[in-house]
């Protein structure tokens, strides 16, 4: 079975309020890419990916005017970037199954429901902060056609970029504040992971974490990345999640660094590559012959040798799919 995560940049821009693909050559949500070219590219990518289940990050909006069609979503949000699962119903069944207790505005410190409020002291001032997910993780109970049951959590964690900064000092302040929120979200997520491990449940955690080991200089202020927290790097081996690309990144900056996203930086006129997308699995699933792949056309020779697919991957989104092939 193939399970994948794919952040489709501003997927919502390609649909009308009836959930139908827009016609014409209007804006596509990607700078410099026309709508029809992007729709065609996404069709090529999804066809080549040929996954049994795809967690779509930045899925089309879900609200009173729009609907995420033919997909399974959890708690909707107001960012026009939903988290949704596309799946083949003949290969697996999935249902939204949120865990944890709801909270009021004061929040709770012990793995509350992801549409609630998490109370955690993120700046060590003895005053708990109130943390919310702008995009609550999608929690799924899944059963494959072969009868294997497992849990899946789809994630789009807080971005650390200093959006809206008007000066270098403000950019530093916002970056540190955003990293604190991102780390708190990852602590909240790890608490939920611990409950599933305690219950002996197989688990897949996947999505866009907007983070990775050694990704920015502010990590030194906090000692570890959000990804390391979610993986449980300080836990006993049997309680850690595993993703080989995260393991490569943890080897240090001098080691080869995988990348799942590619962003153009106008100030330098160059592209920045980063590892942001992961498919993490629990120890039980590691025994089932897992194989990971980042569909990055410049890092995967087999993808690069297919011009149509190579160009489609570059056109479709600023992220590339990450897939897991596993015998389940």
SSE map:
Blueprint: E1 2-7, H1 35-49, E2 53-59, E3 72-73, E4 82-87, E5 92-96, E6 118-120, E7 129-131, E8 138-144, E9 149-156, H2 168-198, E10 203-208, H3 219-222, H4 226-231, H5 244-249, E11 261-265, E12 270-274, E13 277-281, H6 283-286, E14 291-294, H7 301-304, H8 307-316, E15 322-325
Describe the structure in brief.
The protein has helices at 35-49, 168-198, 219-222, 226-231, 244-249, 283-286, 301-304, 307-316; strands spanning 2-7, 53-59, 72-73, 82-87, 92-96, 118-120, 129-131, 138-144, 149-156, 203-208, 261-265, 270-274, 277-281, 291-294, 322-325.
Overview of this protein structure:
- This protein is α+β, with helices and mostly antiparallel strands.
- It has one domain (2-325): 4-Layer Sandwich (Deoxyribonuclease I, Chain A).
- 24% of the residues lie in helices and 23% in strands.
- It has 8 helices and 15 strands.
- The chain has helices spanning 35-49, 168-198, 219-222, 226-231, 244-249, 283-286, 301-304, 307-316, and strands at residues 2-7, 53-59, 72-73, 82-87, 92-96, 118-120, 129-131, 138-144, 149-156, 203-208, 261-265, 270-274, 277-281, 291-294, 322-325.
- A 6-stranded mixed beta sheet has the order 3-4-2-1-15-14, with no helix packed on it. A 5-stranded mixed beta sheet has the order 5-8-9-10-13. A two-stranded antiparallel ribbon has the order 6-7.
- Strand 9, helix 2 (168-198) and strand 10 (203-208) form a beta-alpha-beta unit.
